[in-house]
Amino acid sequence: MDGWRTAGDAAAVIGGSAVVLATFLSAITTVVVPRGVPVRLTRWVFTFYRKLFGLRARLVKSYEERDRVMALYAPLSLISLPIVWLTITMAGYTAVFWGLRVRPLQEAFTTSGSSLLTLGFAAVHGVPTTAVAFSEATLGLILLALLITYLPSMYGAFSRREAQVAIIATFAGQPPSAGELIERFWVLEDIARLDAELWQVWTAWFVEIDETHTSLSALPFFRSPQSDRSWITAAGVVLDSGALLASTVDVPRSPARELCIRSGYLALRNIANFFRIEHNPNPKASDPISITRAEYDAICARLAAVGVPLKPDRDRAWLDFVGWRVNYDTVLITLAALVMAPYAPWISDRSPCVVEGGKVRRRR
Question: For the whole model, what pTM was predicted?
């Protein structure tokens, strides 16, 4: 039991070691590497659960029920990751032990499980076999420790994200809309506060989700504590508010507002790239958007009714609005579909039904 004797034994050791190494690198890339690197094994786990939960969600009749179903999707997928890592690692080490002449296969499997879970009920003999058992026990502890350290980072980022989402719910109503946000601040005679506080805060928020929603790839699917809130609808309201103020409302130009819009659409594009969602990285102002001119005119009429000053050239304002919205239109509505966001005008109310293989399948 202290070495391999045939080519088959050597192949088992090499093959099992390769499986273990690939699994370990997958875990390290998912949890430790501070950048959005797609990991095939992690994607498979989340895709598998997405299909299961998607089937269940289609059986319910209301959005509230669907939200309760999907609230378990990301946590369950995340908790399943270390189970998958440990299972594959145990299979790989089983092959290694078998190649080291631990026979029959059941005994190799028992030795692997005992070592991985540090149970210690399976005796090993010989220096190579003992060394392999020690390495498996160490690797098992590392994999569990990775998840333990991963969860606080995940929930810390989640808490910071949701604090701003809750504020937008207060400003923009439920369901949230850019028109209501602008109207409320104008009626309160506090429109200057948007430049003083909102744009700078949300520029920082967009920068953070750009990093956290790709490096912590489960985070986009963690749903808000309230079923009628979502990080993607809040982001859309802020972007649309900025676009309307920049293009249509007759207020002084604000560099902070325009930089916020830019940071927002760059963040959403990077998240879309991570999830392999197709979009045009260099859209033109003449490209079509999902907002119709009639919908735009309706918002203008609502704002004008409460005294918000609008620019006199409505046609020019519409073209300017399209020029802003085109930068984030596709990624916004597609990400809203991907995370099954609650209803919000100009965002999830026109989202495609599904995103499959990086391609959008539109509603018919």
Answer: 0.86
How long, in residues, is the chain? 364
Residue 196 CA: distances (Å) to CA of 201, 202, 203, 254, 257: 9, 11, 12, 10, 10
How many Cβ atoms are within 10 Å of 242's Cβ, its own excluded? 26
Residue with tokens 């879970």: 117
* pLDDT grade for 197, boundaries at 50, 70 and 90: confident
Token readout for 4 is 């391999």
Q: Which amino acid is present at 288?
A: P
CA 102 to chain centre: 44
From the list 164, 168, 155, 160, the residue with the least C-alpha distance to 78 is 155
- Point out which residues pair with 359 in neighbouring strands: 356
* Cβ atoms 118, 140 nearer than 8 A: yes
| Chain segment 6-49, per-residue pLDDT in tens | 888 889 999 999 999 999 999 998 888 877 788 899 989 999 99
Residue with structure tokens 């076999």?
129
Query: Could you tell me if 248 and 183 are in contact, meaning their C-beta atoms sit under 8 angstroms apart?
Result: no
The tokens describing 330, both together, are: 């596709």
Q: Say how far apart CA 134 and CA 137 lie, in whole Å.
A: 5
Distance CA 307, CA 274 (A): 43
Quote the CA–CA distance of 212 and 194 in Å, as a whole number.
Answer: 25
C-alpha 26/C-alpha 235 separation (Å) is 31
CA-closest candidate to residue 47, choices 94, 88, 6, 80: 80
Contact 308, 183 (CB under 8 A): yes
